[in-house]
Known about the structure:
Elements: H1 3-14, H2 17-21, H3 32-35, H4 38-51, H5 56-69, H6 75-78, H7 83-89, H8 99-102, H9 104-119, H10 122-127, H11 134-144, H12 152-160, H13 169-177, H14 188-205, H15 209-217
Helix pairs in contact: 1-15, 4-5, 4-9, 4-12, 13-15
GO molecular function, one term: DNA-3-methyladenine glycosylase activity
Pfam families: Adenine_glyco
Protein name: 3-methyladenine DNA glycosylase
Amino acid sequence: MSFSRIYEQAVLQKGGENEVHTRLPRVAKPGELEALGDDRYLSEITRCVFKAGFVWRVIENKWPKFEEAFEGFVPLYWQQVPPEVIEQLAGDERIVRNAQKIQTVPENARMIVDAAREHGSFGKFLANWPSSDQAGLLLWLKRNGARLGGNSAQYFLRRVGWDGFILSRDVVAALHREELLDASPTSKKGLMQAQEAFNIWHQESGLPYSHLSRILSFTVD
């Protein structure tokens, strides 16, 4: 389970330490998560929801129009948006017209508003949740949000800079190879198994969880 062995394998696969380091994801600096507005969290959640099972490039290219159609993703507005607005969006050519995914916006807005009322902002809520319990956060997002199961919540957290792992196909393959995962990666048991592995590697290496996850993925052909 030594992460130093995994790191050496990643360096070998990618052709050197520099190649590994230049591909590591950015982790938010202290204060950045708290400084980000709740509207940006709703925007990023929605972006990841729409990307799930769809061509990512299409969503990225259309995203300025999404921002326009959803009027900046202000959670206080979208948590109680009139039903006719949702109906109109289902026919709006500026966005991908998936009615079920459009409906997640008010549901996730309510989740953000509720957390912000309790913690001061959604950013503070995320900043105070430890990476050593990412499994708990993912289960919370799945329980309180809409369409935030699978990897959608993991990609959302990565996009905003929260320090956590992503159970991508390569990461799951590597965890299987190391005999650290024998349950579905979307199940509570699978999440807890992955969490235990990353917690041990974090304690050993001192590296951010996001970096551990990406380096592990480099060891898979």
